[in-house]
From TrEMBL:
UniProt-recorded name of the protein: Alanine racemase
Xref: CDD domains: PLPDE_III_AR
InterPro entries reported in the protein's UniProt record: Ala_racemase, Ala_racemase/Decarboxylase_C, Ala_racemase_C, Ala_racemase_N, Ala_racemase_pyridoxalP-BS, PLP-binding_barrel
Record bears the keyword Nucleus: no
Gene this chain is encoded by: alr
Keywords: Isomerase, Pyridoxal phosphate
Gene Ontology biological-process annotations: D-alanine biosynthetic process; peptidoglycan biosynthetic process
Residues that hold substrate according to the record: 131, 311
Function: Catalyzes the interconversion of L-alanine and D-alanine. May also act on other amino acids.
One of the record's GO cellular component terms: cytosol
Amino acid sequence: MPERAAVIDLAAVRDNVRHLVELAAPAAVMAVVKADAYGHGALPVARAALEAGAGWLGVAHISEALPLRAAGIDAPLLAWLHTVDSDFSAAVAANIDLGCSGWELPHIVAAAQLLNTTARIHLKIDTGLGRNGSTPADWQEFVRLARQAELAGAVRVVGIFSHLAVADEPARPETDEQLAVFMRAVAQAEAAGLRPAQRHIANSAGVLSRADTHFDLVRPGLAIYGLSPFADRTSKSLGLRPAMTLRTVVSVCKDVPAGQGVSYGLTYHTAGPTTLGLIPLGYADGIPRIATGGPVRVNGVTYPVVGRIAMDQMVIDLGRAALVAAGASMIGAEAILFGPGDDGEASADEWAVAAGTINYEVVTRISSRVPRVYRNAVPT
């Protein structure tokens, strides 16, 4: 095992996907593997998700989709976030579906014409999130142009989609408002002659809490990795299993007197004689610098990080009693920052609280300096 590792349990990914497939049925599941599968590794996760019944894969950028195709994955694959420098020709040539908000349409048409083929596109309507997607005011003209391109053979409109803004807060009314806008947009597209087979708007929170958002296809991301999108519901309560365990070993263990300062700024001083343990993970590895107090589990005991987290390391206060119980030194002992909770380790949610952020960010930001180690790569 490497001295630092993000251990990814692909059996957990498969279990989570199977659960989501069951919840979403009869809608198909698009496993969202953008951002290197939320830090878990796009290719291994994509394969595991497809093995477990996902029918589609989704990424943000074409540059994330092309390596999946190059690795031999031929499942339906959607990329939806583009710039003027996006390689539409490469995407069309690789049979990658493209999200289209309006401005991209002539670029996609040009790429299809250059290749003498038909591009597959999903039209996006902005139902209230305010990011990409056609505004309702521009929608009918956008639909007219898309239908025109379809009749010319340059594109095939296979989907219409949007994205939910507050589905992680199920009591809020904006989700109902977004659904109403979405359904009007679909009706307008169909009235113009389009026949999209895939209507999709549901993210993880939508899949887990709003069956009326499922339509033909759902796009879970966070839930695939076993994490909860809700502030008041745990992974376990949702039938999910966290797939990532972040672990290392204690690299230094030393006795210090009372009043010893710890880390930059000396924001922490020891209350009495104690033992400090050095954990060789820091913000260069993706641990938020602000997450003082984050939990680290060593030999079955959880210790909070004390002092500021540095670029490469952080410190925990082991206490004298802990050191004696461990038999004089903990150097080399396994240190787990977060995991599925099976052995009492902390969760990514607890690190999110310590950092004042969300669990999405905690797992996604784990850097490439931390090797990924895969377990259960072969389905059983």
